[in-house]
Specification:
By secondary structure, the protein is an alpha+beta fold. It is built from six helices and seven strands; from the N terminus they run H-E-E-H-E-H-E-E-H-H-E-E-H. The protein has a domain at 43-115. Helices cover 37% and strands 17% of the residues. Helix 2 (46-55) runs parallel beside helix 3 (69-78). The protein starts with a helix and ends with a helix.
């Protein structure tokens, strides 16, 4: 399947596939100009491998196809280490696709919470402590009330 994804890549796009090949650490790409040496990894989680790929590309626009909140938070938390101007997360279902502009979330929404780009590093530990995508409460507190507490503590 990985080999077919690379073979069927549109002419105007570069496709990079990792971990789905015969060797766990091998990388396939639709462009011979891509240096894959920095992408070799044995990460078991695809989420962190995706971020590694984003951090090691010089593309100006990146689209990550993922539907998990963990992916969203990883992309937000690591965006400052990426070289791209635009980072999009393609989410939703095949019938109801949506594109989330990570770069716009950072530029427009974080300031409204009095958060800077550096504060995105707080999002990953916050998400892991307050629960997964399906957990709505941590010790009786909702994620929203826990987040408001985080913002209050951060302002001190």
């Amino acid at each position: 399947m990985s080999e077919e994804l690379v073979k069927q890549a549109p002419v105007n796009k570069i496709v990079v596939v990792a971990g789905g090949n015969h060797e766990r650490t091998s990388i396939l790409t639709s462009s011979a100009s891509i240096d894959t040496s920095l992408l070799m990894a044995n990460h078991e989680e695809a989420d962190t491998r995706i971020v590694l790929h984003c951090m090691n590309t010089s593309s100006h626009i990146i689209v990550v196809h993922a539907r998990d909140t963990d992916d969203l938070l990883l992309l937000l938390g690591q965006f400052s280490k990426m070289k791209c101007r635009e980072l999009w997360m393609k989410a939703g279902t095949s019938k109801r696709q949506k594109y989330i502009p990570i770069h716009k979330l950072i530029a427009d929404i974080l300031p409204s919470f009095n958060m800077s780009l550096e504060d995105t590093n707080l999002l990953l530990p916050f998400h892991s402590v307050t629960g997964s995508d399906t957990t709505s409460y941590f010790l009786g507190y909702s994620k929203e009330s826990a987040f408001m507490s985080l913002l209050t503590i951060k302002s001190y």
